[in-house]
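Action item from last week, closing it out:
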Amino acid sequence: MPLPDELHVIKWLSQYGALPKAQVVKLLNKPPGTAEKILRGLKRDLEISDTGGGYYLGIDPLSRPDQRIVLAVWVLIQFIDSVDPMAHYPATYPAQIAFLKGNTTYEIVVIYENEGRLLKLLQPEEDLKYIIVLPRSSMAASLRLPKAPCLFATVDYNGQEEPTVTFYTEAIADETI
């Protein structure tokens, strides 16, 4: 019977698809040595596999990562200390991931260039906030935002394996609305 941390990894890779190994280690929220031991055990038991030359982990060695999910998970990791391992899950399109923090649900929505129209598909509810991930912060000024609190984020790799996630408030979009 797999241990709780092992079950978490299996659940995450089942619902999100292949993820970079660095993300899975961060999602476990354990010391790196402990996380590595958990992953080695799962590989030994053939529960997970390396994919993408060992950069990614997946349930199936042929699984391919969804880059929107990968970006959304980097944003989720910024909140991992205050989010239960089982309190995040795939969201309804166009959002990628939803998570619970306190009594509030957050949905992470990754928008690429010229995709602002996707925000019209969001269904704001009470106690729901959006984190909109953009390629660059200046895009926020041209977006029509849903009638819900929004936070913006950018994910910048700068040639590193682990990117820098920067958050911006809704005020950067208010200038043109």
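Closing note: DSSP finds five helices and nine strands in the chain.
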